[in-house]
Design a protein that fits this description.
The chain is of the alpha+beta class and about 800 residues long. It folds into four domains: about 180 residues, no CATH class; about 220 residues, no CATH class; about 150 residues, no CATH class; about 200 residues, no CATH class. About 50% of the residues lie in helices and about 15% in strands. Helix 2 packs antiparallel against helix 9 and helix 9 runs antiparallel to helix 14. The radius of gyration is 34 Å and the shape is globular. The two termini are about 35 Å apart.
């Protein structure tokens, strides 16, 4: 029986090559698109899955509420994790990752700067799983002054030489011995360490009597014992706050709460600030999953429309087979088997297409999707689901419809030419159009927002500004010399330093602040250290008062600047002269506001502008240089000049710099990649819909061949025939705009609200989306209409 089904399916496919090609091409593109989306979703869900104890590892994060502010930090205080193990038997082990910042590592008079360097507890390999290539994982970081390097870092510093036992010195004068080399942490890790230093190298980090419960910045992880519920352990965390934390923060009217987040949930579900690596967003996975379903739905609709449109072509076959004894179940099985065979062929072709195109896809979207993922359990299961969904659901209606023909009516020829349930086909085509219009509007709004992010006035001039770090006190001591030599170039117009750079975070300090009523109250305030040239270098403007100036001796010890957000926060009608006191000690000196700078975006547009307080400080870590190139050639000359002056002052240190505008846009890199992916699949969706539309238009014209001939004999013009055959499709486009517009308005409004600053809903995009779909429809259907309109009416009148 099955062999017979296969023979019939193959015979019918070869008999109608055009129909077969359209169906298989549409299904192949649809399934290939779905496979790409499955790969992306699988990759996003792989984060931190390689750790053997992943299900028992939880990070402790912090929720802080102030009287007029609230924030969620991914970090905690230094003593928290060891205290949790000491106080609670539920904690089997703990480990802390303490960021060491951009670290200078010196070996044999060569200086290297490494990002992502962490001090870690000796228990790190008891909790996490790392593949050590050299040295023993269990003992590599047990001894003080030990350092373990990733494979890439070791090769960069030591080349092909053996790094084990070699000594690396830091800018602070500490000498660390290389005791282990581990395989690079996978890209799908929420935290990536290029080097790990044993935390017992700094005794204060492990001294229970010197712990600072008021300072944050430590990534703290606990390994819960088998059988311990994270919810039950979380319920005990308020006890820790009451015992160790409340004594500090209650008097400041600040509430602290700890939360546990599972290791494998961090990448997709964390909403905490200060994550060590860019996080994903589970909402986008739902969106891409919906896109995959939309694409499959359109592919299924194509199949159903083409199959039912050709109902009359197979009516005689059904009638004869019923007369010869076939029952309806056998006919349904026959048509479903054809659908499944089409789908199986399309899946095989889809896999081949994805294997071929995957390197291009990875390069275009800066990904590292592996071909091996195509044969992983989740993707294979997804492909099986696609086959069932497309093969059975896509083929079910044609199967039941075609098998329902009455043999007497068929054999008498009384089955109408318009059979195939045109109303259902119209409804399905409308669904296709609605989905396509929705995707086009969504793509347009996403790109509009990305353009808004690139072009929005950030409150400072980010163009042609270079930033780099002055690593260590020695480098900062030599800053005046470097600055003087650089300013000799007339194309370098300004140089300033600050404690951070636009796009990066800043420190928060507890301060006594004068309120609008004149009383001193305690608040947490974000702090920014700048030198006298910083604001002119970045082009930050003054709202009132004045900037810091060397002409005022008291500025270095008594003056501060604030931004407009801080003025609004404290309700200052007249901010000049308002007082601020560091800490909560009344004996500390008072500082006074001498000026207000206009708000500028220090962080991404996802975040509101924070209230900032600026203190004057010379020779800060982050150096900013404004250049004025007139041509690309001048840009290269200026960069070469900066490189030369740097090497003259720091002969053993490589110069590593960033352009502020580029580094700021990196904050939106993930969004831009998602936007490009969304656009790609929108285009593919339109292409798949067009394939079905071409086929359906062809059959529509074929069904009305004799009618067209009669109309032409009676004097109808070519334009009349084209209008006749295209108007119904254009009407369906117009009908589809109602649900598409409503869905786009609702969902895209919700997405825009995730940004603190976003573009408005540009409704002209709706008209553009409608116009594009209408134009494609007219072109796709108009081709067959024009062909029919130009045909010989004599042949049309003879057509059966």
């Amino acid at each position: 029986m099955i062999k017979n089904y296969l023979k019939l399916a193959l015979r019918n496919a070869l008999r109608q090559p055009g129909y077969t090609f359209l169906n298989i091409l549409g299904l192949t593109l649809g399934i290939a698109s779905t496979l790409f989306i499955l790969l992306y979703i699988t990759e996003e869900n792989r984060f931190d899955q390689y750790h053997e104890k992943k299900d028992r590892i939880f990070r402790v994060s912090t929720d802080i509420t102030e009287p007029d502010d609230a924030f969620r930090w991914s970090t905690t205080q230094t003593p928290l994790a060891p205290q949790l193990k000491a106080d609670y038997s539920e904690v089997e082990e703990y480990v802390r990752f303490i960021p060491n910042g951009r670290t200078q590592l010196e070996h044999q008079d060569k200086v290297f700067f490494e990002e992502k360097v962490f001090l870690v507890d000796t228990t790190v390999t008891d909790v996490f799983t790392f593949n050590f290539l050299r040295g023993e994982a269990a003992s590599a970081l047990k001894e003080p002054m030990s350092i373990a390097l990733s494979q890439t870092t070791a090769e960069r510093i030591f080349g092909n030489n053996d790094p084990m036992g070699e000594v690396l010195e830091t800018e602070s004068g500490r000498a660390y011995t290389v005791t282990g080399i581990y395989e690079d942490m996978p890209r799908h890790s929420h935290l990536i360490a290029n080097a790990m230093i044993s935390s017992n190298s700094i005794p204060s980090l492990n001294d229970p009597n010197s712990g600072n419960w008021g300072g944050f910045g430590i990534y703290s992880y606990v390994l819960l014992r088998e059988g311990i519920s994270p919810a039950s352990f979380t319920a005990k965390l308020p006890e820790v706050i009451e015992k160790y934390v409340a004594v500090i923060f209650d008097e400041l009217n600040i509430k602290v709460r700890y939360e546990l987040i599972g290791l494998t949930d961090i990448h997709l579900k964390s909403d905490f600030e200060g994550e060590p690596e860019p996080t994903g967003e589970i909402g986008f996975l739902y969106i891409f999953g919906a896109v995959a379903l939309f694409i499959l739905l359109i592919a299924c609709i194509n199949y159903m429309n083409l199959a039912t449109a050709r109902a009359t072509k197979r009516a005689t076959e059904v009638g004869v087979r019923k007369v010869l004894g076939s029952d309806r179940k056998q006919l349904v099985a026959q048509f479903l088997s054809e659908s499944l065979i089409f789908t199986l062929v399309a899946i095989v072709l889809s896999y081949l297409l994805v294997l071929l195109v995957l390197p291009v896809f990875n390069h275009a979207f800066d990904m590292e999707l592996s071909r091996s993922l195509l044969f992983s359990g989740p993707v294979l299961l997804g492909a099986l689901g696609v086959m069932v969904l497309t093969g059975i659901i896509g083929g079910s209606y044609p199967a039941f419809y075609l098998s329902s023909f009455r043999p007497i009516a068929v054999l008498k020829g009384s089955l109408g030419k318009g059979s195939g349930n045109p109303q259902l086909r119209k409804a399905l085509v409308s669904v296709q159009f609605a989905i396509t219009i929705f995707m086009l509007i969504g793509t347009g709004i996403i790109y509009d927002q990305m353009s808004y992010l690139r072009q929005k006035d950030l409150g400072f001039d980010k163009e042609n500004v270079i930033s780099f770090s002055l690593q260590g006190p020695e480098a900062r001591e030599k800053y005046p010399t470097l600055r003087e030599s650089l300013l000799k170039n007339p194309k370098i117009t300004a140089i300033g330093t600050a404690s951070t750079t636009p796009g990066d975070g800043f420190g928060k300090n507890v301060m006594n602040v004068e309120t609008s009523q004149g009383t001193m109250e305690t608040f947490g305030v974000d702090l920014y250290a700048v030198d006298y040239e910083f604001f002119p270098t970045l082009g930050v403007e003054l709202a009132e008062g004045r900037f810091f100036s060397p002409d005022y001796r008291t500025d270095s010890t008594q003056a501060i600047l604030v931004n407009e957000a801080m003025v609004r926060r404290f309700g200052w009608d007249d901010p000049i002269g308002r007082r601020v006191q560091f800490g909560t000690n009344d004996t500390l000196p008072m500082l006074q506001v001498i000026g207000v700078v206009k708000d500028f975006h220090q962080l991404s547009l996802y975040d509101p502008i924070e209230s900032l307080l600026f203190i004057p400080r010379a020779n800060n870590r982050e150096m900013h240089i404004r250049i004025n190139p007139q041509t690309p050639g001048e840009m290269s000359e200026i960069l070469g000049f900066i490189q030369t002056q740097w090497q003259d002052v720091f002969p053993n240190q490589p110069l590593e710099f960033d352009f502020v505008d580029a580094s700021f846009m990196e904050l939106y890199e993930a969004d831009q990649i998602r936007a490009r992916i969304f656009t790609l699949f929108s285009v593919l969706m339109i292409l798949i819909a067009c394939l079905g539309l071409l086929g359906l238009a062809s059959f529509t014209a074929e069904q009305r061949t004799k009618e067209i001939g009669v109309r032409k004999v009676l004097g109808a013009k070519t334009s009349d025939i084209i209008y006749l055959l295209t108007r119904n499709f254009v009407f369906l486009v117009a009908l589809a705009t109602i649900p598409a517009f409503l869905a786009a308005w609702y969902f895209m409004s919700q997405w825009l609200e995730t940004f603190s600053y976003h573009t408005s809903m540009n409704f002209w995009l709706y008209a553009v989306a409608f116009g594009i779909v209408a134009l494609i429809t007219i072109l796709a259907t108009g081709y067959h209409a024009l062909k029919a309109a130009r045909s010989n009416p004599v042949r049309a009148l003879k057509y059966e």
